[in-house]
Amino acid sequence: MRLSTVDRSHIAPAVAEQAVEWLVELQSGDISEQRHQAWQEWRSADSEHERAWQRIEAINQGLRGLDTPLAVAALGAPAQRNRREALKLLMLCALVGGGAFSLRDSEPMMALRSDESTGVGERRALHLADGSHLELNTASAVDIRFDAGQRLIEMRQGEILLDGVSDPRPLRIHTPQGLIESRGGRLNVRVLERSSRVSLFDGSADLLADGQRQSLMPGQQANLSPTRIDPPASASEDSLAWTQGMLVASHMRLDDFLAELGRYRRGHLSCDPQVAGLLISGSYPLDNTERILALLPKALPVEVHSLTRYWIKVHPRATG
Questions:
Q1: What's the whole-model pTM score?
Q2: Phi-psi region of 219 (alpha: psi -120 to 50; beta: other; left: phi over 0)
Q3: Higher pLDDT, residue 204 or 309
Q4: Is 110 exposed, middle or buried (0-12, 13-18, 19+ CB in 10 A)?
């Protein structure tokens, strides 16, 4: 099958990632008959799945003809894990946009190009040159620029917690939506789809966007977008539970809970609209998302349906 004969219209990133994971698993040479059947079921479950698979097969056939750094990495990385991750990145780049570099601003590419990054479900702690402490949450990527005149953290994606120290040099955090100036203290920043949520727990900070400036006091948070800064609201310490490897929910809607949990695992995770408004509370360990999903039917009247480990949907519990 040639790529020129395959439908090259847009494929949803979540579906593309599932197709890539299936390709890598199938090429591992160690796949059970049960997993092979699950792959076939995934393909037949949705026309979008089959279209993604048809395209990825065509891309895979032409992989060795690609003279790009990513292709070289995918084919020649000395360690199996590195080769597998390079292959995943290359396939995602080609699959979603139809070209090897069409996803240069996507999550995997930004992580590859950044000074420091984490994968899905990974967290990291860093000690910076000035003595500040920086923690990266799942799927985060930052550039760090410290020199004689400035301390700058460029956030490309994800979420950080910064414990900054006092220093004559300004400490700035730049996100895709604006700029944060800190004079030391404890600051949580999360890049959302159209804004950045900034929560201050100690010290002081100013938010800047489109000529506007908003100061935060400890215990306050605000959303920062390219054209506006929302009024400050109360910040919750529960939002920092990820630094302890936990997800804390307090009367959280199930759809919001699953969206949050989905940040820490690969694939598609959703729920039926009939159960979206169910409320859930508790503290959940993020290092075992499968365990959290297994516990859901004990806490709520729901069933967890797994087409594959990358495609999970929560439905109302069957009656009778």
A1: 0.71
A2: left
A3: 204
A4: buried
Which CATH code for domain 245-316? 3.55.50.30
Question: 108: helix, coil or strand?
Answer: helix
What is the side-by-side strand order in the sheet with 268-271? 268-271, 311-316, 302-308
Q: What is the pLDDT of residue 33?
A: 87
Q: Are 202 and 185 in contact (CB under 8 A)?
A: yes
Residues 6+ apart with CB under 8 A from 44: 50
Res 93: pLDDT: 57
* Residue 300 CA from chain centroid, whole number: 26
CA distances from 260 to 235, 236, 269 (A): 17, 16, 10
Closest CA to 134 of 146, 143, 148, 124: 124
Which residues, listed in sequence order, are joined to residue 152 by a DSSP beta bridge? Answer: 145, 172
For residue 111, pLDDT beyond 70: no
User: Between 2.70.150.10, 2.40.50.100, 3.30.465.10, 2.60.120.1440, what CATH number should domain 116-239 receive?
Assistant: 2.60.120.1440
Helix and strand totals (H; E) in the chain: 8, 17
CB 177 within 8 A of CB 226: yes
Q: pLDDT per residue over 280-308, tens digit each?
A: 999 999 999 999 999 999 999 999 998 76
Give pLDDT, residue 19: 81
Q: Which two tokens stand for residue 43?
A: 């393909």
- Supply the mean pLDDT for the chain: 82
Structure tokens at 277: 């408004």
What is the C-alpha separation between 81 and 127, in angstroms, rounded? 27
Domain ranges of the chain: 3-112, 116-239, 245-316
